[in-house]
Design brief:
168 residues; alpha+beta; Immunoglobulin-like; 2 domains; 4-stranded mixed sheet; 4-stranded antiparallel sheet; 26% helix
């Protein structure tokens, strides 16, 4: 019995980078390289401060937003201000009106709103009638018709907005 044919086949497999063995050392090294490279990249990113940039990219930062609403020269004391985030994935910020017509926005229960453009809705309803009716012109209560817009910036000092609503 001659084994020369088997040796020729084994040598050609080794030259081609394959082996009849299920776990060759070459394959193990290739598979181990991927997690090692990922680990090195992540470690380098964290040490260089990429972690904060990545968090900002994945989940935009919330910044404090305050303001006040007046209707016919008087503060709106009942209702809510709601904004629709226009830059990116959408989202809503909401803030109740206090006894002086002031509001502070929160997003998903966390104080603040996303940096960027927002449409502003004012939701003030008379609850003494059913169904409740808006006590301000309807155009301020709908996203498609409200003329009110804000641009939230990363500067906390510039995120205070005042609105004077009238019947026109």
């Amino acid at each position: 019995m001659s084994t020369d044919g088997n040796n020729d086949q084994s040598q050609s497999q080794l030259q081609a980078g394959t082996s009849s063995q299920p776990f060759s050392m070459r394959r193990v090294i290739k598979l181990a390289t991927i997690p090692l490279v990922l680990f090195v990249l992540i470690a380098a990113g964290v040490s260089l401060g990429w972690e904060n940039a990545l968090k900002q990219w994945i989940r935009p930062q919330l910044v404090p937003v305050t303001g006040e609403i007046q209707y016919q020269g008087k503060p709106m004391t009942v209702g809510f201000v709601s904004t629709r985030y226009l830059d990116g994935q959408g989202g809503t910020a909401l803030g109740p009106l206090d006894s002086e017509g002031r509001f502070s926005l929160s997003t998903n229960g966390v104080p603040g709103a996303f940096v960027g453009q927002h449409k502003v809705l004012v939701l003030c309803f008379d609850g003494s009638v059913f169904p409740p009716r808006s006590i301000i012109p309807e155009r301020y209560t709908q996203e498609g018709t409200t003329p009110l817009m804000i641009k939230v910036t990363s500067s906390k000092e510039k995120n205070h907005f005042s609105f004077k609503i009238d019947d026109q």
